[in-house]
Amino acid sequence: MALKLLLIVGLVFLVGRAATADASAVMENLVETLEDLVGEEERSMDEQQGLADNLVQEEARGSDGWTHWFDRDNPLPTADNEALCEHRIENPGEICRHPSGIQARVKGSNTPATQTSEYFVKFSPLDGLVCRDAHQLDGRCEDYEVRYWCP
């Protein structure tokens, strides 16, 4: 988003610097670029909404498409980081390209993360789970494990 804003500011600057004969052409290019950016942003928002609508956090669909459980670290002194990108690095080829759901539970139990009182900085199939100690009432995160739904 910041890159797009920078592009827009740069284009506006160029319009201001262009000679009046070229200003019309530059302005047309600016309008086309802005229309393209708005279209991309709308498509991105639609895609994100679609992923959110398909988010599976409970085991309603059975277990055929679920990966195994991943636990990449014990809680650090500041957080428990079960990020999708880290799971992919540490487990190449074990997670599909576009997971559409995520489940998380307290490691060593069947207690779903959604039934704890903890706040998660990230909890989505595209990001994984990130819990920061500073955001918790008791000052620490549980140790979580996650798995992903791969359609």
Automatic annotation (TrEMBL):
Keywords annotated in UniProt: Glycoprotein, Secreted, Signal
UniProt feature coiled coil, ranges: none
UniProt keyword Signal, yes or no: yes
A single cellular component GO annotation: extracellular region
Compartments, as annotated in UniProt: Secreted
InterPro entries according to UniProt: CILP1/CILP2 (IPR039675), WxxW_domain (IPR025155)
Signal sequence segment: 1-18
Domain WxxW: 66-150
Matching Pfam families: Mucin2_WxxW
Recorded superkingdom: Eukaryota
Descriptive protein name: CILP2 protein
UniProt source species: Branchiostoma lanceolatum (Common lancelet)
